[in-house]
Amino acid sequence: MMSASGASTVGSQAFHLESWSRIRLDQVERALEQWITTETSVEVGHAAPAALVEAMRYSVLDGGKRLRPLLVLAAHEAVAGTPGSAAALRAACAVELIHAYSLVHDDMPCMDNDILRRGKPTVHVRFGEASALLAGDALQALAFELLTPEDASVDGVTQARLCNLLARAAGSAGMAGGQAIDLASVGHTLTEDELREMHQLKTGALLQGSVLMGAHCGQPDSVALTALRDYGAAIGLAFQVVDDILDVTADSSTLGKTAGKDADNDKPTYVSLMGLARSQTYAQDLLAQAQQALQRSGLKNTLALAALADMVVNRAN
Amino acid sequence: MMSASGASTVGSQAFHLESWSRIRLDQVERALEQWITTETSVEVGHAAPAALVEAMRYSVLDGGKRLRPLLVLAAHEAVAGTPGSAAALRAACAVELIHAYSLVHDDMPCMDNDILRRGKPTVHVRFGEASALLAGDALQALAFELLTPEDASVDGVTQARLCNLLARAAGSAGMAGGQAIDLASVGHTLTEDELREMHQLKTGALLQGSVLMGAHCGQPDSVALTALRDYGAAIGLAFQVVDDILDVTADSSTLGKTAGKDADNDKPTYVSLMGLARSQTYAQDLLAQAQQALQRSGLKNTLALAALADMVVNRAN
What we know:
Two copies of one chain form a homodimer.
Chain A: E1 7-10, E2 13-16, H1 17-35, H2 50-60, H3 67-80, H4 86-106, E3 116-117, E4 120-121, H5 123-127, H6 129-146, H7 156-170, H8 175-185, H9 192-216, H10 222-249, H11 252-255, H12 261-264, H13 270-295, H14 303-314
Antiparallel strand pairs in A: 1-2, 3-4
Helix pairs in contact in A: 1-4, 2-6, 3-4, 3-9, 3-14, 4-6, 4-7, 4-9, 7-9, 8-9, 9-10, 10-13, 10-14, 13-14
């Protein structure tokens, strides 16, 4: 359970998610700041145009909860036993770049046509539609570039494995596929199974992918890997159920975006399908599933993962 | 020189590019046909939605000259001495997916607003703008998925190296960066240096990247690698110079797209900058540079690369 101070008690140990997160978010911010640049590429010998990089930085830096990077780092620490790994930091930044590009493209007029994101004008409003399109495209490419450093800081097999996990989480059987189902579902009635399938792809795949990428930065055994996959699936789904609940129960200022938007847009949600009370029970069930998965992982260092699951389900925005 | 029969004599040997290409294009088509599917992802356990995959297949299959895949395969054969490699076939398909996604996004209303491509309605005309956006995004992710097979057919170090080369060729200091410069340049006067920089990123980076990816599927020594990088840079630039020449000299039916379009759109071109005659001389100079690079590569099996360079410069469309 999460207390007002941000301290969570999981099992018998106290764990302070906020202080755990603060150090790691600082590292992630510094790394993103450093890696999204116009810096000349050594081999090709060209610099990225400043205007494009400005749009990329605008869409990534100083914003968001950074849930996906935190999942990467927590999963890595659970498997490796200790924090700090070049691979995990790169993976943390790469998943955030994919998340950021998806928001940039999702906000465009041909998609959700949003003009505000985290209280700022969206990228296409600020830089124009064409620049938003290209900035998103370039952010996706940069994610894979970050995963494949040419120094010896990450071994080649791990680099390849991380690229594979990220590509599948982002692609047609992952995030992009889920967005396509979402697009086709507006105004249609979905069954609970169809709604779950859509969200498992749209949001769940990258959240689960973040957990798996973090795990693969260590040397997970098959028991741990299976358990972390289940954990990732549970929190991926829980994230969306809670999003749907907050869309109904929170006001816009707490949420930081327009409340009630999904219902207004005639989008299918868990609340519209199963009602508010059953949605809330379902979210708590998924949290319990996530915690049980951690218990059977055989991993000792799962307090951060447990606290993140708790945060996903019991957050206010 | 290229004869009417498609046979080219480079040095003292006859080389038939058409028959060399036919076999390889068949392999590439079959592989693309097989790899762009709704097939359930083993690990994540989800299928891609059929409608999205249909848009992806529409944009990739049965179309285009496949210059980039041929460059990958020719560079691999030059380095390895023999054809046939799981890595090279995957790299060939991956560069084509990146090329295809760039066309899908480039044709969208917020970019070039083209309604026809290879005689067919463009993806956004056929499937809608949002689907075109997502299909392009998913094609980019699929390119990296293809480069990272989970079987043992390609070693991890090679997978990682190919992902890095592709990410940089496609990203902000490559293709996407070049498109951003192009976007900002409409209606402006560019110097020859600025025009070259734009094209080196927009078109050259992926063409050169194709050559380097093919080379890295073998075991290139540093002499060969430097020479192939120079070869790639020369044909990358030549490709665009010839494009600009054909925009002026060819009619629309030969070209398969609207002739004179760049001039109408007030886009800077080599012809507008240096005139037709000097542009033609420049293209032949670049061809000579490409051939000289092959001669100093120390590689024996460069006939296909030589013939492809010849084709790039002396093509009619």
